[in-house]
Structure formats: structure tokens, C-alpha cells
Description:
Largest sheet: 9 strands, mixed
Radius of gyration: 18 Å
Distance between the termini: 41 Å
Amino acid sequence: MKNVRAFLVLATFFAFTLPLMPLQHLFVRSRSRFARTFPHWYHRQVCRIVGVRINVDGELARRNGVLVVSNHVSWLDITVLSAVAPVSFVAKQEVSTWPFVKWLAKLQRSVFVDRERRTQTSTKANEILDRLEAGDHVVFFAEGTSSDGNGVLPFRSALFAAVKPPASDTTESDVSVQTLALAYTKAYGLPLGRRGRPQVAWYGDMDMASHAWRLLGLGPLEANIRIGPPVPLDDFADRKELARYTEDKIRSDVVELLRGRPTE
């Protein structure tokens, strides 16, 4: 039955996605306002196709640009977070070479960063800040990789150079930072638990295609999200202070989400 479900979900996904890709390409090329909002609608439908129920505590600020700092569990995070709000992503350069995935990432206006080239990091920081100043919501996975879903990996402060340049390189802005804690908690309405959560997570050297097939056959999933309050990006003296604040907040929120504790 799991293989049958995986096949049906995957077939429906491609039948739904392929005709819409040229439309989003047109929105991006013409710089239409729908280039930002259409992926939000699209991913909400994909969540229905896959069978992901999302519970959200909090909301992203709407008036100004927001840097959304999040933990990272699975490739499924992209769809889940995009279903919550219109967002783009800061992605590692390798994603731009992955078959098919690269087109989806580009159509969502992702910013690709080569972490091994420091000179490019500065250029990309300007691009990301320009997007934020224009009112975009940009998601940044601060762990630098994905976890097994049972906790949060240490944040890599060096990665924050792409979103928080030295103070001398920036001017005062209205951009805010919000934390987003994500946890997958249930499958078929039953708690996943410590042993079950790694079935959803995509981490280490797992093959993406085989993991996707197993995950799509797993059944309906439940994802819990907690969004922190907006804090002006300028309030943080440097990238290390920003990394400490966001890691502490997300780590605490993920623990509470996994334990099923409501917000106080």
C-alpha cells in the first residue's frame, strides 16, 4: 500500500506541477507581483497532495522585509514553509545543479550561495539585503545542513555573513528578523516519537529520490511551526550575536513543539 500511495502522490504532483512551471517562469521574467505570491498558493496545494497538515503558532510581519531564520529537517521543509507565507530561500550552490529541483528553486527566486567562496558571500549579501529591503521574506537555514528531526544542530555563525554583513557595510533599514521553529510530530495522526521522526528527516548522505519515495508512502503528516516576534535586524551588533539569539530561540521552541507544549 505504501508503494501505491507514493506512486499516486508523485504522479499527482507532476501532473499538477509541470503545467504551472511555465506560468511561474512568465511571472518571474515579467517581474510580476505574482512571482512572489503564486508559489505560496502552489505549495499550499502541494501540501494537500502530499497530505501535510500544518499547525502554525505566530505569523510573519507583512509590512516590511523579513529574514526568516529556521531549523532544517527535510527537503519537505521547502513546501511546508512556502505554504505558510510567500517566501524565497537562501540555498547552497549545489542545489542549482540538482536535476529538476534546480528549476523549482529558481522559479521560487532562491538565492544560491557558494559557501566556499568568501568573495561571493559579500556579493550575495548585498543581493539578499536588496531583496529584504524590497519587502521580500527570505528563509535562511542556519544549521547549514538538515538534522534528524529530534533536535537542532549548532548554528554556523560564519553562514550569517551572507545575511548580516559588518555594521560598517550597512545602512539603517526596516528589515526584521523572525525565528521559525519546525517539527514534524505525527504520521497518520499518531505521534512519531524519537524513532519515527528520522523517517521524515532527510539528512546525512541519504539519497533524495529513495527518501522521497519512502516519505510519500508514509501517509498523512503533521508539521508544527512556531514563529517568533519580529526583531529589527539592526538591533544585532554582528552576525555572531544574531546567530546566538536565533539558535537559542529556535532550539527552545523546537523542544517545546516536540513535547507538545503550547506557547506560554
